[in-house]
Amino acid sequence: MTRFLFSLFALSSFFLTAQNIKSPSEFLGYELGTEFTRHHEVVDYYEYLAEQVPDMVKLTTYGQTNERRPLLLAYVSTATNMSNLENIRLEHMKDLEGTGNGTTAIVWLSYNVHGNESVSTEASMQTIYELLTVKRSYLENTVVIMDPCINPDGRDRYSNWYNQYKNTPHQVDPNSKEHNEGWWSGRSNHYMFDLNRDWAWLTQVESQQRIKVYNEWLPHVHVDFHEQGVDNPYYFAPAAEPYHEVITNFQRDFQVTLGKNHAKYFDANGWFYFTKEIFDLFYPSYGDTYPTYNGAIGMTYEQGGSGRGGLAVMTRIGDTLTLKKRIDGHHTTGLSTVEVSHLNAEKLNTEFRKFYQKKNFKYKSYVLNGDVDKIDALKELLGKHKIKYGSPTVSSVKGFNYQTGGNGSMSVSDKSLVVSTNQPKGTLVKVLFEPDAKLSDSLTYDITAWSLPYAYGLRGIASSSLVPSQDVSDLASVESLNSGSYAYISNWNSMKDARFLATLLKAGIRVRKADHPFSLNGKSFARGSLIITKGDNQNQSGFLSQLTKISKEYNQDLTPSSTGYVDSGKDFGSSYIQMITKPKIAILSGEPTSTLRFGEIWHFFEQQLHYPITVLDSDYVDAVDLKDYHILILPGGGYGDYFNESQLGKLKEWVRSGGKLLAMGGAINAIDGEHGFGIKKKEIAQDTLASKPQPHKNAQREQIKNAITGAIFKAKVDNSHPLAYGYGADYFTLKLGSAGYDFLKNGNAAYLEGANPKQVSGFAGSEALKKVGNSLIFGVEEVGEGQVIYMIDNPLFRGFWENGKLFFANALFMVD
Questions:
Q1: Does 462 share its domain with 488?
Q2: Computed from CA positions of residues 790, 792, 793, 794, in that sequence, does the dihedral angle turn out positive or negative?
Q3: What is the share, in percent, of the chain residues with pLDDT greater than 70?
Q4: Cα–Cα distances in angstroms (integers) from residue 800 to residues 160, 376, 452, 600, in the given order
Q5: Helices (H), 411-488
Q6: Considering the domain boundaries, does residue 689 fall inside one?
């Protein structure tokens, strides 16, 4: 009887609590799916739930966006689990060392990483409501962590735009304005970055703040909720090939288990869906792959709709897809994911422990040499991922040599960096550092090469033996400068050097550059070295104190000189030691530029270089007098015939008069030899197979022969050219397509040599390789008093190709 009364009391208490919680529709004052909920209203609802059931919901703010919107996490479970939440986390994290004994499933649900894929945040509110009411039983052995909106800036950009332009009440015709966003859609964050491709690179504030908390939990299951085209049925796991080889059989199998459970609900409702297509598990910086490489069952779910969906839209077959229907899809798979995790909590814990057992990878250690600034930049990234590193305690290592592509050896010192796989994050280390990731299928959704030694411009050895190492010592501090010096000299090798220069110029400090190598007091200095003289800055108030402050800020080790008379090379008064102009820089925005390519440059200036840039929109750029600017940047994009004859003439005249035009990617097509400037596309003989009939089933495979899906190539560098100052004889470039351009008559700073170049990592089709043989990568054309700088490959791609950024800085400060 007592047990019966207790059960009756518990049941009545449950219903009483459930009745007291308002549904999203009740709280918001409109039926969910009939309006787009603004971010602050979503925050209000989550705060309301945390206040109503504080024993079941813990709401935290883990950060803030560029536009000052809060980033939230809601922890949801039973009252018993919530009162023991930190102990559950600590026990779970012991699994990384093999000592844990956890029994609770940890499920992390991430919503709205793409702002205009807006349905998922709406679905999150219904999902948490039902977890707290009718689906409470799922929480008995499960902690659910919910991020209701990874990208609040993009979401509000979309929802505000839609509310401005929608018909009343709404129009299902897909041609109506409400289904066609403008140039800057809601997909990206403030800096127009795709946050779903930033999990590994952590270039954006949202990613940096989120990863701190993610690495404190490392869930068993992670779902990234997305949308795709309005005509697509729902997509859920299992994923498509290629799967990276480190993905375990259990991770593969559990995706099938989840997919079958989702299918059960979709079948009952007669909803269409597909699996095992398009969305693979290879590129490491996605919201499904990064969690997978950290032991989770990482998955992408895709609902049809996206930015074209609006509140309702007519599909190609004449059905009406409503926001309510879209909510149903993500709501169903979200609850189904928690259900399956709840039913398999013990198995998830067991297999997670197995994932973190030591693995016998081919390469046990990755050892890197190079510029200290580049090594420091890599250390910073590794620290954010909680990847351990050290310095070697041996004098040489042997193994695969990244520079030569074969076996070799390398001398190392305490300045070298060792990153080994015998650590909890060993699987992630392998994925990020391996020279050439193994592809099980050449048809992929994203780039196929990213190896960090190439990306950071470091010499490396991948060793099949474990290289002994010790903790890295702290950097030495910079001493105050001697006021009696004639000049102070700084190396020019890295982005830190570029930031140092940019800050000096903004502070009004005059800086010269060396266009020839020189030596002084037994020390050698390369082209591009910065020379800051007392004579140039004698009218600069507080010159020495400013220089000291800035050098300490960037930990810049300046070499003082008591004379301008060098041992070899050019003296400081030579015409080869030129003053660096403090450039006024503009960038074209709007159509026809790519938002992603524009965003990379915008972010580079404001968050990496810290140097001002003027944004000129294509709507009014014709009315702007370009004489006010030293440099104009044309980001990549689909320019087509954007420039008419008059505009090209105006642009060419500005360059002839001393302007510097920086054209990137697709922008080059709009100004090439057929449109007024000297660069020419390579002409390649037609593929002989193109004239032969091919079976339709082979069409995709034939097309891929003409593609390069993010592969790494070893380029030659003319480091005597100002565009290549700070580089060695080689540069590993990330090539994102098969566009090929002939060499310039002069000014070929980086290029692929040979008719049939071979990629060092990633996929490149056989026909595509012919197009890029003997082709330009980066170059400068002299036009009158000015220059046109061509960047065929993108040195700023997604903000992670660290070694390319100095080329861009050279274009701004060194080319004159």
A1: no
A2: positive
A3: 95
A4: 31, 14, 9, 10
A5: 426-433, 452-455
A6: no
Q: What is the largest distance, in Å, between two alpha-carbon atoms of the chain?
A: 101
HSE-up (13 A, CA, CB side) for residue 493: 19
- The DSSP code for 468 is P
Model pLDDT, residue 17:
55
Range of the structural domain that residue 505 is part of: 482-546
Same domain assignment for residues 377 and 286: no
pLDDT in tens, 427-457: 999 999 999 999 887 778 799 999 999 999 9
Average pLDDT over the chain, rounded to an integer: 94
**How far is residue 551's CA from residue 188's CA, in Å, rounded to a whole number?**
35
Q: What is the CA radius of gyration of the chain?
A: 29
β-strand pairing of 221-228 with 240-243: unpaired
Name the 3-class secondary structure at 587: strand
- Render pLDDT for 671-700 as a digit per residue (tens, 0 to 9): 988 777 999 998 876 554 455 666 765 555
In the prediction, which pLDDT does 131 show? 98
Nearest to 760 by CA among 460, 459, 454: 454
Q: 175 with 424: CB under 8 angstroms?
A: no
Contact 580, 813 (CB under 8 A): yes
Pairing between strand 512-514 and 530-533? antiparallel
Residues 255, 181 within the same domain: yes
pTM of the entire predicted model: 0.95
- The answer to whether the CB of 224 falls within 8 A of the CB of 300 is yes
In the chain, the amino acid numbered 583 is P
Per the domain annotation, does 695 fall within a domain?
A: no
For the chain, what percentages of helix, strand and coil (3-state, to nearest 5) are there?
Answer: 35, 20, 45
Q: What is the mean pLDDT of residues 498-502?
A: 98
Same domain, 622 and 758: yes
- pLDDT tens-digit readout, 344-383: 999 999 999 999 999 999 999 999 999 999 999 999 999 9
d(CA 236, CA 223): 10
637-649 per-position pLDDT tens digit: 999 989 999 999 9
Quick one: 157 exposed, middle or buried, by C-beta within 10 A (0-12, 13-18, 19+)? Answer: buried
Instruction: Tell me the residue type at 35.
Output: E
Asked if residue 149 and residue 66 are part of one domain, the reply reads yes
Tallying the residues shown for the chain, one arrives at: 816
> Are β-strands 660-664 and 631-634 bridged in parallel, bridged antiparallel, or unpaired?
parallel
Nearest 10 degrees: CA dihedral of 373, 374, 380, 384?
Answer: 170
Q: Is residue 360, in this structure, part of any structural domain at all?
A: no
Helical ranges in 301-440 per DSSP H = 323-343, 345-355, 372-384, 426-433
**Domain-embedded: residue 253:** yes
**Predicted pLDDT at 281:** 94
- Parallel/antiparallel/unpaired status of strands 512-514 and 660-664: unpaired
Q: Are residues 348 and 377 in the same domain?
A: no
